[in-house]
């Protein structure tokens, strides 16, 4: 394929980059959406405590989904400078933090949990949690290494000690 053929199809490098990483973007959207849907189901059933008993399993499933698009995720995380996706991880975290924090505050108002974190503390921890996940891809862990590391991430981020259900 020639450069001319590429630019007849795409409006420039940014459009080409966006098309290349779209499957990774879609995967992150589905990942976040399914996590929120699962927590909403747990809230409705009064079973939020399952969030902690299944957190390792949930993180390992997330790694499996991420690794289905591993090469594109790595491109998105490491090669997006100069594109609209340059701040993808930051923007993804911010959007999901806002939803997550509001969900936790709502649970606390309903007497369904005790949040032992301030807004900023929760933000910092959730940001570093997602950064740990991203670093696994950036540093070329194999899927088996990522799945094993998920246990350490789960232990390090002892969410059950900071959010009681």
Describe this structure in words.
The chain is mainly alpha-helical and 165 residues long.
Helix content: over 70%
List unreliable stretches of 5+ residues.
none
Rounded to an integer in angstroms, the radius of gyration calculated over CA atoms is: 18 Å
Q: Structural class of the secondary structure composition?
A: mainly alpha
Q: What is the count of structural domains?
A: 1
Report the major sheet. 2 strands, antiparallel
* Assembly status: single chain
Order of helices and strands: HHHHHHEHHHE
Number of strands: 2
Mean pLDDT: 91
The 3D shape can be described as elongated
Main sheet: which strands, in order across?
A: 1-2
Number of helices: 9
Strand content: under 5%
Terminus-to-terminus distance: 56 Å
Provide a brief overview of the structure.
It contains nine helices and two strands.
Topology:
Elements: H1 3-9, H2 13-45, H3 50-53, H4 55-68, H5 70-78, H6 88-109, E1 114-115, H7 119-138, H8 143-156, H9 159-162, E2 163-164
Antiparallel strand pairs: 1-2
Question: What key attributes describe this structure?
Answer:
165 residues, mainly alpha, two-stranded antiparallel sheet, 9 helices, 2 strands, 77% helix, 2% strand
């Amino acid at each position: 394929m020639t450069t001319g053929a590429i630019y007849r199809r795409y409006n420039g490098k940014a459009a080409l980059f966006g098309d290349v990483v779209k499957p990774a973007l879609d995967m992150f959207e589905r990942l976040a959406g399914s996590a929120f849907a699962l927590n909403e189901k747990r809230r409705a059933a009064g079973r939020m405590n399952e969030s902690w008993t299944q957190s390792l399993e949930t993180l390992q499933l997330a790694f499996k989904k991420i690794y289905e698009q591993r090469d594109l995720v790595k491109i998105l995380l490491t090669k997006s400078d100069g594109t609209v996706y340059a701040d993808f991880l930051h923007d993804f975290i911010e959007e999901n933090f806002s939803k997550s924090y509001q969900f936790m505050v709502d649970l606390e108002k309903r007497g369904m949990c005790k949040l032992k974190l301030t807004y900023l503390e929760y933000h910092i921890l959730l940001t570093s949690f997602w950064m740990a996940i991203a670093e696994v891809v950036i540093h070329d862990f194999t899927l088996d290494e990522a799945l094993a590391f998920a246990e350490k991430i789960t232990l390090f981020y002892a969410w059950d000690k900071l959010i009681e259900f």
